[in-house]
Structure prediction request, 246 residues.
Amino acid sequence: MPNVYLIVILFFALSIVVPALIKLLKGGGPRNKVRAIVEYTQKRGYRLLNPSVAQTLDSSVMEMLRNPALKNLAKASSDIFDIEGLENGTGDWLAFSLNLRSREATIFNFSESSPRPGSNGANVRYKVAKITAAGLPRFSLGKKSVAHAVEDFVAKAVKRPKLEIELNPAEYPEFSAHYWLQGQDPAAVIAFLSPDKLKRIAESKLQGIVATNANYLVYFENGSLVTEQDFDSFITAVEKISGMFL
Prediction:
């Protein structure tokens, strides 16, 4: 009888602690996706956020249950949860880091746990990069879109207006026409985002959102990273963004 209780407790712990890992590894297709990412990081010499994942690719469910290293998987988004859009989600335990321009960058997929306004009820998937950069002013910016307009409308409806920073359209015509900018300290943000940076941002045709918190410059855009080409292309884009802002 005690063995029965132990099994029940183990399965209960599994349902709480490592559901995402089991979901991805128990099937051949998802398992292959995890294997592809692990092999990609090893091939490029990058560092897995959770190295123990590489040892579970051929494990059974019971073996994963008994593996203590899988009970406290680190989440790549745990220190950027204050970035709007990345507050709560899944998939970020399968992350890896590399050095870009002498700074550490962490790359991962992220799926929001609840639909956002304008997403037609579907969870949004993001490609995410966070780059170590302490002391930056808090801001976020991105390309104007219908989804962003819907989010602004919802924020105003619940009396949570976003802190828009208005730039002179005559001075920054391309940026003002195509991008939005938000921040709590407009003077500090504008001082950091020099005219040259704003010009390069406008010319870069930025596809995603750039945001900061106390320790990171974060870039995320819609989509998922699956193939080597996906990762290589995203890392190249992130490196260019790092060069524009840092």
